Structures are given as C-alpha cells and as structure tokens.
Amino acid sequence: MSEATRSLNFIEHIIEDDLAAGFPKGGLRFRFPPEPNGYLHIGHASSICLNFGLGLRYQAPVNLRFDDTNPTKEEQEYVDAIKADVEWLGFRWDRECYASDYFGRLYQWAVDLIRLGKAYVDSQPSEEIARQKGTPTEPGTNSPFRARSVDENLLLFQEMKTGKHPEGTHVLRAKIDMASPNMLMRDPVMYRILHKAHHRTNTDWCIYPMYDWTHGESDYIEQISHSLCTLEFKPHRELYDWFLDQVAEAGKVRPKQREFARRNLSHTVVSKRKLLQLVNQGVVHGWDDPRMPTISGLRRRGCPPEAIRTFADTIGIAKRDNVVDVSLLEFHMREHLNKTAPRVMAVLDPVKVVVLNYPEGESEWVEAENNPEDPGAGFRKVPFSRELYIEREDFREEANRKYFRLKLGGEVRLKNAYIITAEHVVKDARGEIVEVHCTYDPKSLSGSGTEESLKKVKGTLHWVSVAHAMEAEVRLYDRLFSDPVPDQHKDRDFLEFVNPDSLQTVKAFLEPGLSEAKSGEQFQFQRLGYFCVDPDTTPAKLVFNRTVPLRDTWAKVEQQAE
Ligand code: ATP
Ligand code: MG
Fold first, then answer.
1. Is residue 288 part of a domain?
2. Cα–ligand 2 centroid distance for 35 (angstroms)
3. Could you report the per-residue pLDDT of 238-272, keeping only the tens digit for each?
4. Is the CB of 262 under 6 A from ligand 1?
5. Domain boundary among 211, 233, 255
6. In the sheet that 350-355 helps form, which strands lie side by side, from edge to edge?
C-alpha cells in the first residue's frame, strides 16, 4: 500500500476537517516531543512516523521539542541519542526546541495568573494536598491557602524562584475547581521547588514547571496546530485547554490536542523506565544492546530504518492500546534486506567435508551472484578446494526420502560449485562425526553450461573452503522475553519473563571476501539469515550480529503450543 493510496487515518480526518472549515494549510505545524530521560524505542517510532509523516503529507514543518522539565532524570546524553535516532530514521525537523527555553515566558504567564487570582501558592505538604484531592465520586477540599492575597502569592512565588525555600515547602497551583468531575482540574500543581541543576539551564532555576503547564504553552509558543499525544493524556485535554484559555491571544493559532493509542510490541517492553531497569541490572549490555527494542538497539542489530518506517505505516495509528507482534517488524526487516543485502556464505556450526577426488593442494575460484534480487549487484569469486565446511545439521548418515540435504550415498549441490556424493564418515573416539568423505563430479560446476551442471539435484548447501575461511564471532539473538506481554501480568514482575537464552555466541567460518567488512554492513548468510557487522569488530576480530533468521522460527513454536 503506497502512502498516496492508503485511506486517511483518523488524525488526518481531523486535519482535513479543520482545513475544510477554513484553517489555512500554511498554518499546519507539528512536533515530536520526547522527554530526554532515556533512549527512544519502537513505540516512539510510531509517534515519530506519525508526526513527521504528517509533515511530509501536508508539507508542514515539524519541530523536535525536548520536554525537559524534570532535571532529576534528564541528561544531555539522551538529547544527543534522540537526535541521532530521529535522523537515522530518515526525518528532518524544522526547529530544535527545548521546553526549558520557555521557562522565562512560562514564569511571566504564571505571575499574570497570580495577579488575576487564578493561581496561588499552597504551603501544605504534598501528602496533605493529595488527601484533599477527593475521589472521582467525592469533591475535593479547598486548601486553607487558596484564599491567599495576590501580594502574598507574588512574594512567595518570587521567593520560591530565587531559592529561598527548601524543596517540598510550597507549590504554585492553578485555582480552578476542587469539585470538578475531572480530578486533574482540581487545582493542579503548576510549579514545584527543586534545587537541582538542569542539563541546559544549570542552576538558573529553583522551580520547575509541571508537564501540563508546560506542554500546551510550549505548543502555543511554537504555534503547533495539532499536538498529538498518547491516550493516557485524554483526561488532560480539559486542562490543556484551560491553560491555553489563560494565555492564547486572538489571531494566533490555537493548538489542538488529539490522542492516539500507544503501540506496544510483543515479547518486549516499551517503557523507558523498564528499559532503564534492564540496562541498570545488567540484563542487557546497554541501551543499544541488539536485543533492546530501542531505536539504537534495532540499528545495531541491523534493522534498516526503512523497515521501521514501513512497519509503523503498516500498523498505522489506532484509538485503542494494542500489542503488535514482533514478527511483523521482522517481516519488514526481511522484506527490505532481501532486496539490499549481498549474499555470502558462512558456516556457523561446521563439519568438515573432504572431497576425495579433488586434487590435494589445489583450489579454484568459482563465480557467485551477489544478489539475485538486484541485477546490478554483480558477481564475486569464492574459493573452492578439497576441504570444506558445511553445517553440521546439513549432514546425516541416514535419513528418509524427505531429507534433501547430504546423507551417505546421496548427492547435493554445493552452492555456486559442484555436485558431491557422500561416501563415508570418519568419527572420533566419542563417536562424533569429524569428517564426511565425498566425491565430486568435475563436470557439474554451476554455470559451466555442461549437461552435468544443469542436472537437477534436490538439495543445495552453503559451504566455505577450510583453507581460505575467515573466522568470526557471530552473536545469535533471540527474543529478550519468552512471554508475549511480559509487563502485563498481575502480581508478576516483567523481569521474571526474561529469556535466559536470548544471546548465543558462536565461532563461525566465512568466505574470505568478508575480511574487509565494515561496521554496520549487512549481508545475507545464505540459508541462515541476515547479519550485520557489529561495532565491536576490530582488525583482528570480526563480530557479526544476526538481525533476523531467514524464516520465522517462533511461528512454528507458537503453533505447536496451541
Ligand atoms: P515512556 O513510557 O517509554 O517513557 P513516554 O510517553 O513517557 O514513554 P516521551 O518521551 O514522553 O515518552 O514520549 C514522546 C512522544 O512519544 C509522546 O508524544 C508519546 O506519547 C509518544 N510515545 C511514547 N511511547 C509510545 C508508544 N509506545 N506508542 C506510541 N507513541 C508513544
Ligand atoms: Mg513521558
């Protein structure tokens, strides 16, 4: 389904209705507003693709706005990582904005609210304020400080700002309605005292604005037309609008908050807090561990940005929270990599084949197609010789007629090379097969045009020449959690569902052309899957990550379990 032909999603319908009602197309502006308190994950990718996708569709600017109002959790490291991830996904923002840049403006507006009798300093402990909030069915109780004079409020708020008061002693609250059926409208806190340095404003501020007070006003300052957020903010919309009512001027764009459902991915968790736990407890090696559902983890694993974008476009946006199966993301990875990744041969679990009638000490270079899906990808040469590795699981001494790999007395084609027949095996003292002795048909070379080369053989195996092979470390990843929804079980901690076998490291043998492979490069290891070069690679040691196997092995497991 192409972007142009798919039907409109419900957010686009809202925008179309606004345009039809006279809102100027040139006034459209969107934003993606991450809090820099962790790395972006695949859930954020949905929001990024939605907002930047709208920007592309309507040729409207999209801001990258850091929602940095909580100095205790936010860091420059996260800001840098978020920018790198959005760029890597292929999007360009119009302006790079920070809520912290608006602290002065927000403070002035708060002073205006105090002057108008619409905000007051409450000097009760937070537990007391919470107790007075009431319940959804019972109204709250007015704070004894609600009737403070404007002058006293102005003085106290000024003192809060200059650091005269310790944390927790005062807050600034909006004076709305302690009996509102919407609990969020019961005099919400606008500012709290925090004697903490901020990653951008340093120690300039001792008070920090709350999310609700900051977000809508930031949208207004940037003149965002449609402020899209996840469903949990739906009850906040009334407050978003109330705050806008206090500051919005005629003739300016009035931002509109609309909500869409969070996207969850199966067999993982998409919450920065929980991902941070995995990092801190050493369950994974870092935010960019290839098992993580973070954008940086997916990148390191070898997931192409196009796969994330087509995945996000395919699942679209929804009005209800839901879990999308990770195999759908893997499907899009395969779809893209099938077209782009050069084919190579690698053996991950070798058994040696000796071709008895191939001259000892000789070798030849056979021609191999780089990518049958891409005619422009060309050909390369691969060395063939008397001793080869094939996968251990590609040989059996005995097997039934449905086994199309190598068995004693049977023949297979070695990809791009010759047809071989297994004659007998050599075993060690423990009975394990150490060599499979074969013969080959010298006239059967693939592509040579002879009658033998055209002979149809049921099985084709990948292989590498022992004398020429490159060694590499290959990291095989599996799902990080064995349960599809690890964080949605009552009374069970999501960490209980960590898959203990999510990483397996093997020594592999590769065709020699791979010695030049650079970090990030991607390949199809024929018959095995897609792999990419890990940044841990050094001139002395190649390291590969398995991005995805060629086939979805979990689909089988899950079918059997049913
Ligand atoms: P987390 O719970 O992981 O910290 P968050 O919503 O607190 O997520 P933010 O940095 O505030 O993280 O999110 C930036 C934007 O991305 C917000 O608009 C948020 O609604 C959206 N977003 C976050 N998680 C998801 C998700 N799973 N699916 C869709 N959008 C998401
Ligand atoms: Mg958040």
1. no
2. 6
3. 999 999 999 999 999 999 999 999 999 999 999 99
4. yes
5. 211
6. 460-461, 411-414, 419-427, 433-440, 350-355, 387-391, 464-465
